[in-house]
Amino acid sequence: MQALYEFRSHGEDDTEELARQLSRHLHAGTVIAVDGDLGAGKTRFSQGLARAIGVTEIVNSPTFTIVKEYKGTQLPFYHMDVYRITQMEADDLGLDEYFYGDGITMIEWASLIEPLLPMERLNIFIAYEGEQERLFRLAPIGEPYSGWCNQMKENGYLT
Ligand SMILES: Nc1ncnc2c1ncn2[C@@H]1O[C@H](COP(=O)(O)OP(=O)(O)O)[C@@H](O)[C@H]1O
Ligand SMILES: [Mg+2]
């Protein structure tokens, strides 16, 4: 069974901090698959991650475009929202070019395209627990994602 790690966010600053801690590990080909209900904080977390890797453009929800590309300091940032994706769009977009490409891919509503995701990735589930409270559950699949989570746990950021 895959290991589960937890992070409790008591506000947007905490969510930003998790993104910042995670950003220290990111490299080309990183895939982060995010799920959680509407308003859970998927986009907010993506914004934190984008900022942490040096994206200066405003990151907002790419629901209608499915994927938006941003320029970070070192790496491109590919932000996807697949809530409304159709099979045809999925085929046309060439998702693998992003997943196995030269940037960091973050997918909102990732479980909707589970069969299309790379086997190795970092799954993150965000649960709404109150106006400011969120529970992040991280489920890494494979390396290097498991190693990152272990390290963040050792450093006291995850339980
Ligand atoms: N701890 C928190 N972490 C992230 N967002 C939070 C937190 N507390 C409150 N929020 C608010 O929750 C909302 C999350 O919205 P958004 O990120 O668009 O959700 P989603 O993309 O999952 O639909 C934002 O308005 C944000 O300000
Ligand atoms: Mg969103």
Write the layout of secondary structure elements.
Elements: E1 5-9, H1 12-23, E2 30-35, H2 42-52, E3 67-71, E4 76-81, H3 87-93, H4 95-99, E5 104-108, E6 121-128, E7 134-141, H5 145-154
Magnesium ion binds at residues 42-43, 61, 81, 108.
Kindly summarize this structure in a few lines.
The protein is α/β, with parallel strands linked by helices and 159 residues long.
Please characterize this protein's 3D structure.
The longest helix has 12 residues, at 12-23. The protein has a seven-stranded mixed β-sheet with strand order 1-7-6-2-5-4-3. The chain is built from five helices and seven strands, in the order E-H-E-H-E-E-H-H-E-E-E-H. With 159 residues, it is an alpha/beta fold. A hairpin with a 5-residue loop joins strand 6 (121-128) and strand 7 (134-141). It is globular, with a radius of gyration of 14 Å. Helix 1 packs across helix 2. Helices cover 28% and strands 27% of the residues. The site of adenosine-5'-diphosphate has 16 residues, from helix 1 and helix 2.
Rounded to an integer, what's the Rg over CA atoms? 14 Å
Order of the strands making up the biggest sheet: 1-7-6-2-5-4-3
The class by helix and strand makeup works out as alpha/beta
Order of helices and strands: EHEHEEHHEEEH
Give the helix level as a range of percent: 25-40%
Unreliable parts? none
Instruction: Determine the strand fraction and express it as a percent band.
Output: 25-35%
